[in-house]
Amino acid sequence: MMSTKIRKVSKYGSFHVAEARIRNMLKWRGIILFEAVVNPTLYLVSIGIGVGSLIDANNGVNGVSYLTFLAPALLASAAIQGSADEVIFPVMEGFKWNRTFFGMRSTTLTAQQISLGVFLAAMARAMFSIVIYWIVLYLFGALESDTAWLAMPAALLAGAAMGAVMLALAAKIENENFFFTLVGRFVMIPMFLFSGTFYPLTQMPTYLQFFGWISPLWHATELGRYLTYDYPLSGLQLSIHIGVLAIMIVAGLFLSTRIFAKRLEK
Amino acid sequence: MTEPLIRARGLTKTYGDFIAVDGIDFDVAKGESFGFLGPNGAGKSTTMRIIGATSVRTSGTLTILGKDPEVNGPQIRAHLGVVPQQDNLDSELTVSENIFIYGRYFGLSSSFINKKIPELLEFAQLEEKKYTKVEALSGGMKRRLTIARSLVSEPDILMLDEPTTGLDPQARHILWDRLFRLKEQGVTLLITTHYMDEAEQLCDRLIVMDKGKIMAEDSPAKLIKDYSTKEVLEVRFGSERNQEMVEILRPLAQRIEVLPDRILLYAEDGEQLLEQIAAKGIHPNTSLVRRSSLEDVFLRLTGRTLVE
Fold first, then answer.
1. B104 CA: distance to closest CA in chain A (Å)
2. By the CB < 8 Å criterion, does A102 face chain B?
3. How far apart, in whole angstroms, are the C-alpha atoms of residue B63 and residue A213?
4. Complex prediction ipTM
């Protein structure tokens, strides 16, 4: 007879992975906090106030001040940046630089729990960035309506969509130089510039609006504008924005689980 | 008869056309220290990963603690401590944080792990490095931390893949000493190595692997007895004369192996053989009598040396 009893396995593996990731982030807390405060301040002063004063002299955008128009977009983009950072670097580190995922894999954790744990921690980081950003926006007077706080969950949705997609992509592309060139030059910056961030997407010729349609930033920004001022969206538009973001989250997480499992089996 | 802790039958792993593990059979009993000896690429690490329930076998059967790793991976891994060939510590975190998070991955409570940490740090002789970032540790310290970390869940089976590769002799001996202690505590050890001295020191029983197959299986002493003579006389004549001397020496020894730089003559009494050679007026440039080792067993079984 076997004298050793088979042990139970924790169901909360992804939370334990997230816990370790957050411990790791805390080592960088100074930089994370600095970035969270300084980034919005720089943007709001230079573009919000600088560019904004010109636009507002011309009656603003959508009937609101430029700062108010810009605020939800900047908030969502901060969420995207925060979650992308906390997905991309841990994935590079986990598979390649320190191989920590292989260490996790030899515990009771499953590939799904590892990938989900990284995602959850990235959401915590995105939420942190969002809250700080929101406070700075508030202090600058960029948030006018009573429901302006709802821009936060809308921004988190953007962070989640981008985080899930990046999780799969960073795990899939094993060559980090290629990955950073691809993502930095051809994803992050164009997305920031072409998602109706600084002007309504409809100002663009239709063939350039395409970038907005596939961008989580544009979908979340539209939601954010709807929630922070009288920006009209139909029920259909609302469902499309939420739907696209939800599909990105579900597909990203599903694919990353599969890619993680495959890479960890090696 | 107690059921073996690990039982493999016809265990096979292929990657496309390449057969990494080729239908091997073995049993490991509880409390045993079991080794996989073989050169790089013999299939040792692949076998370890299959046992570690992180790689799926292509065919054959495998039970660990009576369960199939393909079906009960996480449950089996709950009982395993794994020390991989390449360290995979979190270099940003401190020594004690690394143990802590690893314990958490197993779902252990913070209070349990915190009680365990001082004991593990003592075991790894890293008490003074408790708050040091892993980045700053030496190779030997990292290895010891990896072993300490793998013990946080109090595993029944500790798996070590090439545990001392890349360590200096002193660090190796410290590590061996720690592994002996675990063995005394009844932990089952699975060790892969391409160092014969390590296998002789640590293993009760081992399998010699080459090209995915088991060449022999027994205790180190028994393997040496079965596949080699008691002693070996190593002689060197310089690279040009080695070949011509082989034919003259062949009748004198029980067995002869020619390596690029030296000739190995197998005999029960090496000194006596050396005298016989001298009596024939043959004087090698250098000569050395030593006991047979697993290296000789491997050479006999495969015609190749372990570490080239």
1. 6
2. yes
3. 52
4. 0.91
